[in-house]
Design a protein that fits this description.
The chain folds into two domains: 1-94, no CATH class; 96-158, no CATH class. It is 85% helix and 0% strand. It has helices spanning 2-40, 57-94, 97-122, 127-157.
Length: 158
């Protein structure tokens, strides 16, 4: 349960920071390009227009919109991550030990398949190919985590 919450918070922070950084960088690049173009222009009385800054009301509104959208995206991603984690933990609570782990793995692979298919459809690519890629990547991450976990356990218990 704690892992689900920690994962959700981590995903929220990563999503928020990545989206705000990307969008603000694009906005600042656009401001720079606009200021370069404006510096080459003159109006009727030979005065150059004032450069745009982040204090300009329109730019200020755009920055606020970027923050709000990134916040919303981060919240949705965090909730989705937490729910997916809880769905994977559910078999461990409901089923006997003999097949709870297997059920959890099957559900995880199914979720990866569905997520990959959805990704393929939204990107107008092959849903099956995208789903297969997602499942393979997920299995590779599981195997890498298992190997790394075993290695760390060896280091700690020696």
């Amino acid at each position: 349960m704690g892992g689900a919450v920690a994962g959700a918070l981590s995903v929220f922070a990563a999503t928020y920071l990545a989206e705000t950084h990307e969008k603000k960088t694009r906005l600042l690049e656009a401001i720079t390009r606009t200021n370069r173009q404006r510096s080459r222009q003159t109006n009727g009385n030979k005065k150059k227009p004032a450069p745009l800054t982040t204090e300009h009301p329109k730019i200020h509104r755009l920055l606020g919109k970027i923050n709000r959208r990134a916040l919303g995206s981060g919240i949705v991603t965090a909730i989705t991550s937490a729910l997916a984690s809880l769905v994977l933990l559910l078999p461990l609570v409901l089923f006997p030990d003999t097949y709870a782990v297997t059920a959890s793995i099957v559900i995880g692979v199914l979720l990866l398949f569905l997520l990959g298919a959805f990704r393929g459809v939204t990107l107008k690519q092959s849903a099956a190919k995208s789903a297969l890629k997602m499942v393979i990547l997920g299995i590779l991450v599981i195997l890498a985590s298992k190997v790394l976990g075993s290695y760390v356990l060896k280091l700690v218990t020696q």
